[in-house]
Each structure stands twice: as structure tokens, then as C-alpha cells.
Specification:
Blueprint lengths: L1 H22 L7 E7 L18 H9 L1 E3 L2 E2 L4 H10 L3 H4 L21 H7 L3 E7 L18 E5 L11 E2 L2 E2 L2 E2 L2 E2 L6 H15 L6 E6 L11 H6 L13 H12 L6 H25 L5 E7 L23 H4 L3 E4 L8 E3 L3 E2 L3 H9 L15 H5 L10 E5 L6 E7 L3 E9 L4 E9 L15 H15 L47 H8 L21
Parallel strand pairs: 1-10, 1-11, 2-13, 3-14, 4-5, 4-10
Antiparallel strand pairs: 2-12, 5-8, 6-7, 8-9, 11-12, 15-16, 16-17, 17-18
Helix pairs in contact: 6-9
């Protein structure tokens, strides 16, 4: 009898424990903040050994999170942002070779699903505070139409750090489509707005915040106290070892122009202070532990504006490491052990699937993602090998001058292609990138078969580019004028047709014309030819 009573008590306890376990609330989804610097140098942060510029906030993120030691972006701005938002290769999107200039009407195809759309549909609050640079000619390209419930910032780049925040002479500062006149230092205004948004949020729902700085992009400027702090900083940077990176700096010295390094340092310091304000807000709100904070630069540092990428080779616009391997850290105290370093290759395209996995949400994209879920590397310290090639390209700033790359864990090929009116010159650089991360030893001549294989891969990849995609254009069409205020520039949705324009060729012959264009580019969006140098879409 006593045994029966004991068994009954044990069974009752088991049922009670099971019910309690079932009644436990699920683990809250993490908040997410993505901070993006603009043209920050690899060597310009404390966690990479820099002692010239104060970056205590970024160093704190590195101490409390992990360094993403082999985090790669495209060599220039708009392509990186396109890859971040879509998880897709910018070559497919038509935004790979150059940025979206103010006079261009291009943007990212509305059929591409943006990261905040996925999070918004999963119940997240979504906000963007900062620089967009992903299309401005039509409302379909506007941040508020791409999943961001709240947008505070600029449609363009190079708007300056103090009012009137203009591009090409037209004012570019808005909140949700309405022009605003907030006064102050731009970097600090962004920090104040993010902090305000976090404090005023619906505390019953997680949030997704995208915070792309204009710092430290040109035209550089900083508050007087920061300028004074670095006024005596000497420019002792070593050469970047590429003409694209070192050429403008050499010309500056020859023409006796003062170094940009002191002002650049002041701008980076100001950005770090802004990041610190946001981190303090998370602490005050008591939500730091379950908030993922990611920081990275959109491309390598611009040497001409004062950045330093050494010991990496090259800089912004290059596909050498200094142009695409960027300073990056991630903190998530609830899941990621502090003080680590991830050395698996991770790219900006990987962020959408990785964050979706972290939040346990469905991405819901119509098109296949090019990124990989890297969450096991982040929270379980798993090594995730890269055998297939990762590709990047730039044609900036000189039209017809391309820097291209394909690489994996073992090999990296950099191609410098210069097109003239009646000539094409190709220079190949082949590296065993794990053994030679600073790209000193060109092995192209010793390994012609590897060069040929990787060249073919780059060639095939480039055929994916939409024919009307971005190209390098430093000036507008003759006579073009900017609007007085960019907030009113996008064509409203109600004034546009309901579907994308089909183009001039009749629909029946479009596949044939696409095939005939071959390596010149695609007429059919998201077309992947099944035959090299041309072929009908899969």
C-alpha cells in the first residue's frame, strides 16, 4: 500500500513538473540592432590594436561579444547595403559595380524581399535611422516601403555632418517621407533618435533597428572639441600597396594638401561615442542581454579620406583584403560567449539567414538566398568551411576599371581589368589566402590552371548582371538638376503603374534577345543562364 502511495505521489509530481514545463513562456525573441560604418579602416579600431583613435564603445562590444575576424562586404557602398537587406548577391540585383548616384532612377527590384519585411511580418517593430542609398526615384524604393515602419535619415550619401544635410545642393533629411530640420551633429542625432525609439518602443514586442552611419565618409567634419583632440595627430600610415588606394594619397602629398587623418580620427571618435549612447540606452532599459548588436563597415577604409587598413592590402574599391575584409563585432550576451573570435569566412549576405535563425522566424523570400546561416559558428563556435567561391566586384571610381575577386578558404584570385575603347588588359593575382592573408605572394604564374578555373568562375558570375545595372558615373547627365528637397522627390506609388515596366522587346522574343546578349548581361530579371556565355534562363 505504501509503495502504491509513493508511486502515485511520484506520478503526480511528474505530471506537475511536465505541466509547469509546458506552461513556461518561450524564450523571448532577441532584439536586433545593426550598426554600419561608412568607409571605416580595418586598423582604426582598438580591438585591432589601434592606439591613435579612441574607440572604447567598439572595444566594449568586442570584449563582451565576438570579433568576426573574416567578415567580408563588397568593396563599395550600395552593393553592400543591397546584400545586407536581401541576403542576395548584388550581381543578381543590378547593383554591384557602382553605387546608386542621385541622378539615377535605379533601385532594388520590389520583388526582392528585404530583411525588415521578414521581421515585421514576424511581429517585430522595425526602424531605420541613418543613410539609405538603395534607391530614391520612386516610392517603391523608399525605406518605408521596404519593411521599415519608421525611417529617420537620408536617402543619399555625402550629405555632410551639419545642417542643411544636402546632396547635390538639395536638402536630404527626413522622417517617414516628411522633410525635417533637426539641428546638431549628424552622428549624434542618429544616436539620439535610436535611443528615443528604443525608449518609446512597445515593450511587449521585439524590435529590429538598422543604424547606418555616414561616418567616417567624406566630406569629413566633426565638433570643435573632437577636432581639437586630434589636431596634432601625425599621419604615419604605411602604404596600402595598391594604386587605387595609394594614388590619391600620393597626389595629395605632391600638391601639399594637409592630411585627412586628424579629421578622420575625430569623425571615428564621434561615431564611437554615438554607439556608446545606444549601448547605454540598452543598459538603462535592462535589455542588453537579449539584444543582438552587430557592427561592421560597409567596405574597407578609404585611404584618401584618412583611413588605415594595414596590414591588409588595398582599400575601398579594391577587391584585395583591405577593400572587402572589414572590422566587425557582434554581441549577444544571452547566447554568444564573450571575448571570442570567429575565423570562418562570413559575408554580408549571410546576415539575413543568420538573424532569421537567431529569431526563429521564416525569411519568406521568393528568390533563393545566396547567404548562409552562420549561427552555429557564432553561438557554438563551429568551424564552417567555405569550399565554393565568394565573389565581389567594383568599378569605382574610374569607368572601365574593374576590380574582381573569387575566393574560398584556400585560394583567392584578384583580377584587375582595364577596358579601353579597343583594348582589354587583365592582371591576375593569386594567393593562398589562409597562409598569406596580407596578399604579399602572387602565385598566378606558378598556378595557371587555378587561375583559369577561377577566371572562368568570375566570368560566369558576371553574366548574371542586369543589362541596365549600375556603372561608374561620377557626374550626372549634362544639365541634370537636383530637387530643392529630396523628401518630395520619389514618385508616389499612386502615380505609378502597378507592375514593373516590361521593356521594349516583345515578350515572346525576350528570352531569345536575353540569350543573344550572352556575357553582356541579362534582359530578364533573376535570369541564370544554363549555358556559359549565354543561354536561356533556368
Amino acid at each position: 500500500m505504501k509503495q502504491l502511495q509513493q508511486a502515485a505521489l511520484a506520478f503526480t509530481a511528474f505530471i506537475g513538473a511536465s505541466a509547469f514545463a509546458l506552461a513556461e513562456p518561450p524564450t523571448p525573441q532577441p532584439n536586433i540592432i545593426i550598426m554600419v560604418a561608412d568607409d571605416l579602416g580595418w586598423a582604426d579600431v582598438g580591438f585591432h590594436g589601434n592606439t591613435e583613435i579612441d574607440t572604447p564603445s567598439l572595444d566594449r562590444l568586442a570584449d563582451e561579444g565576438v570579433q568576426l575576424d573574416r567578415f567580408y562586404t563588397t568593396p563599395i557602398c550600395s552593393p553592400t547595403r543591397a546584400a545586407l537587406m536581401t541576403g542576395r548577391d548584388p550581381m543578381r540585383l543590378g547593383v554591384a559595380y557602382a553605387t546608386i548616384m542621385p541622378w539615377r532612377n535605379i533601385g532594388i527590384h520590389p520583388d526582392e524581399r528585404f530583411m525588415p519585411e521578414s521581421f515585421k511580418d514576424a511581429g517585430y517593430q522595425t526602424a531605420m535611422v541613418g543613410k539609405w542609398h538603395l534607391g530614391h526615384a520612386q516610392e517603391t524604393y523608399h525605406p518605408n516601403q521596404r519593411g521599415f515602419e519608421h525611417f529617420y535619415g537620408h536617402l543619399h550619401t555625402e550629405v555632410g555632418y551639419f545642417p542643411p544635410f544636402s546632396n547635390q545642393g538639395g536638402k536630404d533629411f527626413q522622417k517617414n517621407g516628411e522633410s525635417i530640420d533637426d539641428q546638431g551633429y549628424e552622428t549624434y542625432l542618429l544616436a539620439d533618435e535610436v535611443s528615443r525609439y528604443i525608449t518609446a518602443r512597445d515593450k511587449d514586442k521585439p524590435f529590429f533597428v538598422y543604424m547606418p552611419f555616414i561616418a567616417p565618409h567624406t566630406p569629413l567634419d566633426a565638433p570643435p572639441e573632437l577636432q581639437a583632440k586630434y589636431a596634432d595627430l601625425e599621419d604615419n600610415r604605411l602604404p596600402a600597396r595598391t594604386e587605387r588606394a595609394d594614388g590619391p594619397r600620393t597626389m595629395g602629398k605632391l600638391t601639399l594638401r594637409p592630411s585627412e587623418r586628424p579629421m578622420y580620427a575625430a569623425v571615428v571618435d564621434g561615431m564611437d561615442q554615438a554607439i556608446g549612447r545606444v549601448l547605454d540606452t540598452l543598459d538603462t532599459e535592462g535589455i542588453s542581454d537579449n539584444t543582438i548588436v552587430l557592427f561592421f563597415s560597409d567596405n574597407g577604409g578609404a585611404i584618401y579620406s584618412g583611413a588605415d587598413n594595414v596590414p591588409l592590402r588595398g582599400g575601398k574599391g579594391d577587391t584585395f583584403e583591405g577593400g572587402i575584409r572589414v572590422a566587425s563585432v557582434m554581441r549577444w550576451p544571452e547566447k554568444i560567449a564573450a571575448g571570442g573570435k570567429i575565423d570562418s569566412i562570413m559575408s554580408v549576405m549571410d546576415l539575413l539567414p543568420t538573424f532569421a535563425a537567431a529569431a526563429n522566424i521564416e525569411v519568406g523570400n521568393e528568390f533563393k538566398l545566396d547567404g548562409r546561416n552562420m549561427l552555429p559558428a557564432l553561438i557554438e563556435d563551429q568551424q564552417i568551411p567555405r569550399e565554393d567561391y565568394l565573389f565581389f566586384a567594383a568599378e569605382t571610381p574610374i569607368k572601365g576599371h574593374f576590380s574582381l575577386t573569387a575566393f574560398n578558404d584556400e585560394w583567392k584570385l584578384v583580377q584587375e581589368v582595364v577596358q579601353g575603347l579597343m583594348s582589354v588588359d587583365v592582371t591576375n593575382y593569386l594567393f593562398r589566402i589562409q597562409d598569406d592573408p596580407f596578399e604579399h605572394n602572387n602565385l598566378a604564374q606558378q598556378n595557371p590552371d587555378m587561375v583559369a578555373e577561377m577566371s572562368d568562375a568570375i566570368h560566369t558570375w558576371r553574366t548574371l548582371y542586369p543589362l541596365a545595372g549600375t556603372r561608374s558615373e561620377l557626374v550626372p547627365p549634362p544639365g541634370w538638376r537636383a530637387p530643392i528637397d529630396w523628401a518630395g522627390y520619389p514618385q508616389p506609388i499612386e502615380s505609378l503603374l502597378g507592375v514593373p515596366a516590361p521593356g521594349m522587346p516583345p515578350k515572346a522574343v525576350l528570352p531569345i534577345l536575353d540569350w543573344k546578349h550572352g556575357e553582356a548581361g541579362r534582359l530578364i530579371y533573376n535570369c541564370e543562364p544554363w549555358l556559359l556565355k549565354g543561354g536561356l534562363c533556368k
